[in-house]
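To whoever is on call:

I kicked off a structure prediction for a single chain this morning and the downstream step that reads the tokens threw a length-mismatch warning. I double-checked the sequence; it's 69 residues and nothing unusual in it as far as I can see. Pasting both halves so you can look.
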Amino acid sequence: MIKKIYKITGMHCTSCAMDIDGELEDNGAIEAKTSYARAITEVKFDPEKIKEERIISIINNLGYNVETI
């Protein structure tokens, strides 16, 4: 298991954070914790089930900008 932290820009509310968490977990992340207030997401994932590139792509496709911290 790998844990990565990403900086997220473009969120407007806590609902945005919940959308990110739901999409990541629905697509293979073990756990996603996104904080609207801190503008970050912490993602735990198994690289055999979901690649980091896919995590970034999912967040981008939701309309947010993401960068690895």
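Update from on-call: the warning came from a stale cache, not from the record. Cleared it. Sanity check on the structure: The longest strand covers residues 2-9.
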